[in-house]
Specification:
homodimer; 726 residues; mainly alpha; four-stranded antiparallel β-sheet; globular; disordered N terminus; disordered C terminus
């Protein structure tokens, strides 16, 4: 059973469809709303900037009134960029071996991602750093819709096919993702893989507990909390381990300054002699403290809304006895669901303004701050309803609901008090619904729906284009006609590029957040239905492949950004494992004996003891794990030692160490050292093969500027004409 | 007012007393209980081993039946050892600049401590590592009482004199301690300095609170807890900062294997090609788990004893009305104090056996494990009595004490119940007594008492030696006579060395522990008497100087061991700041309103809220501090960057980087770069001056072996004779 039936045709198609024709990067320039002359000016300026940065260009028309500017970095220039980037890594202490060579050295990239990262820098960095400073949707380039690298279809298909037949991803699979998409994406897949493997324990233990003791059992609660602690502590070590393996440890320091960063002054660093932009950390910290009122207001707003919805729902279902009860019961939830997007949209806008105000120097820090805020909001919407059910509605509902009754509102309280019976099963039902149905719906919304939308849009566009081409065919000159119609050899390739240009950007934080929420459900409410982990385990098998499907076929290929962690999610996981211990203790205490008797002092004592047990266990687990698992870190240290020793020997035996060092980075195998399989296809460097015929032909057109201008004139006119016709 | 009147004479004495005559290390060989022939064999073997390790020797007699073997490392050999040590640092990634030079390079030590560390390695390391493998009190060398370097009296006096006139230690003072005694000792002084400076806040705030609100005030409680969190988080950053400044970050990895380490197998590391001793970390972790039953038993034993003592004391003072009450009241405490040493001795012996069984590879790890156990025991004896007073005796005493009364023991409980009144002031009194009187007594016990003991012992020995020399003067040959009587030029020097040979070893962990206990008092019970911090502040001014006095005049100079932290005390501090938040909350809740009404559920709620507030504050403080204080770490990173950049430029402009790199470690000023004063005397390298006349004379004696044998014969006989005479 292959998961990717839609992929087959691409593979059976002729080779050019799979090949990227040597294109390194694509800029999607849209001029729908622009004057033709303005558009031509901007296009000329774009080409000028790109050529100035030593980049080769080619142009074709895109969907609608848009241009696709293809960028290729000359091989020698690219090799030098890779070398310069490594020198920078060495200077900032990310790697410890000085890459051999001088200013003009041309290095081979170890992975496609490394090469693409240099291309990304060449396209986006400031001119003073040697880039073309193309910033999509910002400032001078606000008409550039996107700038992205092209997918390596063969490699993607190979990986997806391999995974559809296996249960677990291997270390080599993760290395392959890293080689294709960079470390930031690879860290997410490493996380979901580790997490899913760990899920086997609560799934099995949950099944056993459920069979023997049912819900709310102490053995499962203990096992589950301990498991959560072990997993979080394990992941911390694993993350460091991967960061060392992928040589990205501490990579945050060499990220470039965001173009929107505001600084107070520029200081020349007395040690390095570099100009450093300075913004007082005190001021930044003070600004960050605004997070406290924001989080409070957001929590109150969301929480209040949830409480009101909940109260209304309870009121209607338990107290209201009028007509249309069956429909009215769902009304509050429906209204809430309808309001939620606009409220969280508003909160997100405030959060974004706050993050901008906090003024982070690098895009990385900015992303982390923004994601943290989104996490907080997301956690509230995800968990608060269930928390209310578990700790307010079920235990205290019998006392609270009569207060909502018409009798109580009128003032006579003797009424109705004994007619209310709260079903303690409600928590379990809610957990089952949210964890299982919710996961399936999410999957559909996240992967199936966009896929269907994309197919429909494509069909519609094809239909529309067939009609509109008939119209403008006669209006334009012969030369323009040539650039408006695709060369049959390129047409499949161009269709693919046009689709990729319109595809979504991949947001790795969202996928990570989704896994964190799942982890949260398990630790917070797992005790109420031990089978929940089993459901998650099955879901995650699909989720992992679905996410890769989405990444490789429904989204643009992300720029291969480096990162040494899954970011703020790690803190989220820690907080959840702590809240989980408290919540599990409270749930077991409250629900175990069917709510017979609740004493506040015993509940508080349970919470206090659970918290101390949590702190003690976390300390023991983190100490123990670090002791047992440090072999990987030790191996890393030994490797570093061996490298230094080799360097020392070379230096002392040869006089100049240069000759020997060269060996090191021609050694492309290093990513796959521990692999027993032969290196997978993407290791065969896509960027360094002899240009194919079609590729040579694609890049041979020399009249890029004229071609572009012709397209703008033709399509600008066409769209204006089309508007007139409508 | 000078703190060190006793130091004056040494300074006014002629120069040779201050000078160490080029002696790098002293081995104190004791043969009191040995056959003369056995002693001669061992001595010969000792000299053989030392000469084999390329060390020069000289011999003089010590106090009683003992030999002082003086060791000097030839300057060229020492310089090479220093270079080799730096190469090793570089290989293991402690430093990032490859020291220039080849196998035979002779490097200047940056500090006396660096030179002495190489001497220490030459004397103690295994023969396979190039050392003489002298292991005092262990195995083959169990008759060697100690092996130690000599104090640099001029530098010590200079520092002590400087500090007696200042309030705060500067960064340069810490650098000087590091230069004299190594990083492990310097870390303790850095800690007490940071801690004492931080004490200014609770001292001031405590005085204000005491004036306005008296004891048990909420403002002081909040301020005190927050202060504790800020201090611990600050110290963590400060520690890393210092470790980077002193280039010892991660130095634990290159410590050598303990001679008592037992390994399962030796593996040749595939990466480094070195032989690595392997002992399963799983087994070690399992053995470490024995700590849990040990800690439980120790807590129970100590705790039980304290509880019984306490109960007896209460019983006698509150219930007993018989004769001799005034004396009997103190009996339990006296008995407890008498038992305590033997009980904690027993526990320490068990702890030591446990630590040995845990089988650590390096002495560092062993020390840490042993210290951790001692900390636990020490904390129990230090804090449990006050905890009992605060949380059992005062709040519940009125209910519990009647149970101890004779009436209750007989069975009729109606009696006595209303005659008991517990004074809530008792907690305050106990805290005042323990924190103030206790500190003064400790100081006396730790510094004054040993000083007096040493002086008395010295006088007694002088008296006795004057008498005994009269006896054996005639028995020995002329040659022996020569070696038994000191050259007048050397006699002052030899007297000093003999005293140092008999002095205690300095245990830096004990001093650190003492500060932790003080910190614990403040955080746990500070709320009951806010002035306590003021007392501590005054005490610490004296304590710091007293500790340095002890280190430099009453103890042997410790081998300059490296370390990158104050060790397990850091975890102790964290635990204490957490317990402090809980304890402070409980004390304020219980005592604020004079024990009118105690509700268990409110108490538990207070504890839970205090704990959450603690966790939240710790997170906020650690995030904020790391943000604001990372400038020092950034400066470090910038320095590293600058070094790498310089290296890169040198490499690319000159072909071979060697010429330039040499500059770096001739640059002895680097420890004092930020000092505005001229370098203090100890920076003038003691080891590299032209040998003085007296020094040349001291080392000119070539008949080391014969001299030693003569001394053994003479003193061995003498002592046997002396025994016969007695």
């Amino acid at each position: 059973m292959s998961l990717t039936p839609n992929y087959k045709p691409a593979e059976q198609a002729p080779a050019p469809l799979l090949d990227n024709l040597g294109v390194d990067w694509v800029v999607h320039y849209e001029f729908e709303d622009l004057d033709t002359s303005k558009a031509i000016d901007e296009f000329e300026s774009l080409l000028h900037d790109l050529h100035e940065a030593n980049l080769e260009t080619q142009v074709r028309h895109g969907h609608g009134a848009s241009l696709l500017v293809f960028i290729r970095v000359p091989r020698a220039h690219l090799g030098n960029l890779v070398h310069q980037s490594r020198i920078k890594d060495w200077l900032y202490g990310i790697i410890h071996e000085l890459p051999a060579g001088d200013e003009g050295t041309i290095a081979d990239a170890e992975t496609p991602a490394e090469a693409l990262r240099s291309v990304y820098h060449a396209v986006t960095w400031k001119k003073s750093l040697g880039g073309a400073h193309i910033t999509p949707k910002h400032g001078k380039w606000k008409n550039i819709g996107s700038a992205f690298p092209l997918h390596d279809q063969a490699a993607n298909a190979e990986l997806l096919r391999k995974w559809s037949r296996t249960v677990l991803l291997t270390a080599e699979d993760l290395d392959s993702i890293r080689a294709l998409f960079g470390e930031k994406v690879a860290f997410y897949f490493a996380f979901i893989q580790s997490y899913s493997s760990f899920l086997v324990f609560p799934a099995g233990w949950g099944a056993v507990s459920w069979w023997y003791w049912g819900s709310y059992s102490i053995p499962f609660a203990l096992g589950n909390c301990l498991w959560a602690i072990v997993f979080v502590e394990y992941w911390k070590i694993r993350e460091t381990d991967l960061a060392l393996r992928w040589q990205v440890n501490g990579v945050g320091v060499l990220k470039v300054t965001r173009s929107k960063y505001v600084w107070e002054k520029e200081i020349r660093d007395p040690n390095t002699g570099e100009l450093v932009q300075y913004f007082s950390p005190y001021r930044q910290f003070l600004r960050q403290l605004l997070l406290v009122p924001f989080a409070s207001v957001a929590s109150l707003a969301l929480g209040g809304l949830i409480v009101v919805t909940f109260a209304l729902e309870v009121f209607i279902s338990e107290v209201y006895t009028g007509s249309l009860k069956g429909y009215l019961e769902f009304l509050p939830t429906v209204i809430f669901s309808l309001c939620l997007p606009s409220i969280s949209g508003l909160l997100t806008r405030i959060a974004t303004r706050l993050t901008k105000y906090e003024n982070y120097r690098t895009q990385d820090q900015y992303d982390i701050a923004q994601t943290t805020k989104q996490f907080v909001m997301h956690f509230i919407t995800a968990f608060l309803p269930t928390v209310l059910t578990a700790f307010v509605y079920v235990p205290f509902g019998a006392k609270l609901i009569p207060l909502l009754s018409p009798a109580a509102l009128r003032g006579d309280s003797a009424d109705l008090k004994h007619t209310i019976h709260i079903d303690p099963e409600r928590l379990k039902q809610e957990v089952i619904y949210l964890s299982l149905t919710g996961q399936v719906l999410d999957f559909g919304q996240e992967i199936v729906l966009p896929y269907v939308k994309r197919i429909v849009l494509q069909k519609w566009r094809e239909y529309r284009e067939q009609h509109s081409t008939v119209h403008h065919k006669r209006d334009v000159s012969q030369a323009t006609n040539q650039v408006l119609f695709d060369d049959p050899n390129e047409s499949a390739f161009l269709t693919r590029v046009r689709n990729e240009a319109e595809a979504e950007e991949y947001n790795v934080h969202e996928d990570t957040l989704e896994m964190c929420v799942q982890f949260g459900y398990l630790t917070l409410f797992g005790a109420s239905w031990p089978l929940v982990a089993l459901g998650f385990l099955v879901n995650n098998w699909l989720e992992l492949r679905g996410d890769f499907f989405k990444l490789s076929l429904e989204c643009q290929r992300p720029p291969p950004i480096r990162s040494d962690s899954i970011g703020p999610s790690l803190q989220g996981l820690e907080v959840l494992s702590w809240l989980g211990a408290l919540s599990t203790a409270a749930i077991v205490y409250l629900y175990r004996d069917g709510m017979v008797e609740i004493r506040v002092s015993s509940l508080l004592l349970t919470l206090l003891l659970a918290e101390w047990a949590y702190l003690a266990m976390r300390f023991a687990v983190s100490t123990g794990l670090r002791k047992i698992l440090d072999s990987t870190l030790q191996r890393e240290a030994a490797k570093r030692y061996a490298m230094r020793k080799g360097y020392l020997e070379a230096a002392s035996s040869e006089g100049s160490p240069r000759g020997k060092l060269r060996v090191r980075f021609r050694d492309r195998v290093s990513v796959y050292t521990s692999a027993t399989d032969p290196p997978s296809p993407q290791a065969e460097e896509m960027l360094h093969e002899a240009p194919l015929d079609s590729e040579r032909r694609f890049w041979s057109g020399t009249s890029v500027l004229e071609d572009g201008v012709r397209i703008i004139r033709a399509l600008g006119k066409t769209s204006q004409k089309a508007e007139k016709e409508l």
